[in-house]
Write a structure and sequence with these properties.
disordered N terminus; 314 residues; 15 helices; mainly alpha; globular; single chain
Amino acid sequence: MPVVRRRVVLTLSLGVVVASAAATAIGYAGGDDGAQAQRDGREPRPAALTWQQELRVSDAQQRLMSRCMKRQGFTYWEDLGMTLEESRPVRYVQDDVRWARSHGYGGRIEAKSERVRERNPVGTYRDALSASRRAAFDIALDGGADARTFVAPLPGGGEIRKRVGGCTEEAERELYGDPAEWFRTSKIAMGLTSLYGDDLMKDRQLTATIRAWARCMKDAGQPYQDPQTARDAVRVNTSRLGTARADEAFATELRTAVADATCARETSLRAVATARETYYQDRLRDRYGEDVDTYRNLGQRAYDRAVQVVPARG
């Protein structure tokens, strides 16, 4: 979602910062732990939204904000510059061979996304307003300096704050019902990897499967020890070749990404990663299960409302 000003204040310990880097590397594939729970004889948890559903909620929030800003006498453009195909997140395990054949790791999509952000008309529109109208725009959008501040403790320590009001809060309230509770539980749910990320990446079953993936990649002429190393190498190569040799760089990206996705499928890396991540998440359920369930229930509430606001992105 486009933003004019960022008002999120982080108060983090060094440990959380380090763990966040690991969490970014993990982010597997959004496994269905509800189905896994049923297989294990446990009570299933609320289902997490798919990335397609999350995108629709984001689109709905933008639509609601645009309507609200119009009522306040301002224009607010929705950011719909990327197609559904282009909006797919690339996680640690990427086993969609068809997508990889077309987009590699999404390097060109990422470049397009950056161009879309740079051309975002909202910031240009705001800057062209008079000082008094600009101040009124800010108040209408997010409440200005008098907006409420939400605070969420992070599982790994520290806290994160967000100042919200105006049309932003109105849209969140329409979707989630309780914006403060959504913010709090979302930061807890998304921050749990800081507690288990290191253990997961050292897990015997997972590391054995990654070694099998690496052997498969070596046989395919791509000698990388894990998926992140392969992607890092592609980024370095793309940067080294520059715009003059962009087609050559993208061809290399395609070859590596297709081999990565093919080997992930052949070694069942997604299934193993999802199962092991669920194992470590379940160890935290007594402490954080209620918050995670609330986060997912609020997300489902938002999605149910989103489908009444916007169509699925094409």
